[in-house]
Design goal:
Helix content: under 10%
Distance between the termini: 24 Å
Shape: globular
CATH architecture of the largest domain: Beta Barrel
CATH class of the largest domain: Mainly Beta
Bound molecules: zinc ion
Number of domains: 2
Number of strands: 8
Largest sheet: 5 strands, antiparallel
Radius of gyration: 15 Å
Strand content: 35-45%
Structural class: mainly beta
Strand order of the largest sheet: 6-5-4-7-8
CATH topology of the largest domain: OB fold (Dihydrolipoamide Acetyltransferase, E2P)
Order of helices and strands: EEEEEEEE
Length: about 110
């Protein structure tokens, strides 16, 4: 889920992830929008995390990836579940359905084979 500014006079009509309560440009209350399924993105940047911060329940090392999603104003950050990232690599969003943590760690990316 993402949010979008419903103000037709606003210059920013792209989607926002993480969702915003109000538009950063015109301060109008945002509305919810559903992304198409599957969500396919492109790796914009990545780094290998060797020492995770407190509260990160991922085993290290892992790949932290910034992923461009078509139509978004933002470039969300998450992690690559398996494989080695490259800039421009296509990835697909997946979600932890069994034993979710109810945190941002419940969504991640996997390599997308076309
Ligand atoms: Zn706006």
């Amino acid at each position: 889920m993402a949010t979008r500014c419903p103000n037709n006079k606003c210059s920013e009509n792209r989607l926002w992830i993480p969702p915003r309560a109000h538009c950063p440009d015109c301060h109008t209350e945002m509305i919810w929008k559903t992304l198409p399924n599957p969500v396919i993105g492109t790796i914009y940047s990545f780094t290998e995390v060797v020492y995770a911060g407190i509260g990160i329940e991922l085993s290290t090392p892992y790949w932290q990836v910034d992923v461009e999603i078509p139509g978004l104003a933002t470039i969300p950050k998450s992690y690559l579940l398996y494989g080695k990232p490259t800039i421009g690599m296509k990835v697909k969003a997946e979600f932890r359905m069994k034993t979710p943590t109810n945190t941002v760690l419940d969504y991640y990316w996997v390599p997308y084979e076309q």
